[in-house]
């Protein structure tokens, strides 16, 4: 073990070899475990109350572990940033995440998985669904790259449909108001729809989006 390879944990200030970064801050594995980082690192929360509970828990733990005040504040800030944006809830997809806020929603797609997803969708549309008129351009729009922000006012509706091809159990379709392409809806794919808790979360998410689309269309 080389002392030069060791890094100081920003929380407990021990010198350690293995660290994990949270928003630029370095923590040792012991602190990471105490902070229950695995439970919140993707910010998947079914409600803002659940997010607030986790935030308070993280704050309490970092105070108990006597982290520097600034570190505790920065950790709390991570949660508060979501609240400030009007966070409602978030869900997991197949290497995708959806974040629902009061005035918009976001879909984040892991680049690594996107290619596989595009291949699967392409085959599915051609063979199973027999959909004509789509090309790589439309497909590219249907499966967002990186993190994309969507405004409720640009959409007419959202619906869930069950895919016939595994692993794509569930597809969420957002109907865009001004789309020049017939297929220029945004499709959002979920796996493991068979799991009751996933199904419930996705149903709730779709319901929340539908409500906000309706509200923004009335305004
Ligand atoms: Zn530590």
* Unreliably modeled segments: none
Cofactors, ions and other ligands in the entry: zinc ion
How far apart are the first and last residues' alpha carbons, in Å? 63 Å
With strands numbered from the N-terminus, the spatial order across the biggest sheet is 5-6-7-8
The quaternary state of the protein chains shown equals single chain
Q: What fraction of the residues are assigned to beta strands by DSSP?
A: 25-35%
Helix count from the secondary structure assignment: 7
Please tally the β strands and state the result.
11
CATH topology of the largest domain: PH-domain like
Gross geometry: globular
Question: Which sheet architecture does the biggest sheet show?
Answer: 4 strands, antiparallel
CATH level-two architecture of the largest domain = Roll
Question: Number of folding domains?
Answer: 2
N to C succession of SSEs: EEEEHHHHEEEHHEEEEH
Return the CATH class of the largest domain. Answer: Mainly Beta
Secondary-structure content class: alpha+beta
Give a brief outline of the structure.
This protein has 219 residues and is of the alpha+beta class. Helix content is 42%, strand content 26%.
Please tell me about this protein's structure:
The protein has a four-stranded antiparallel β-sheet. Strands 9-10-11 form a three-stranded antiparallel β-sheet. The mean pLDDT is 84. Helix 3 (48-64) packs antiparallel against helix 4 (69-84). The protein is built from seven helices and eleven strands. The protein is an alpha+beta fold and 219 residues long. The relative contact order is 0.11. It folds into two domains: 3-84, no CATH class; 90-218, PH-domain like (Roll). Strand 5 (87-92) and strand 6 form a beta hairpin. It is 42% helix and 26% strand. Bound molecules: zinc ion. Zinc ion (ZN) binds next to strand 4 and helix 1.
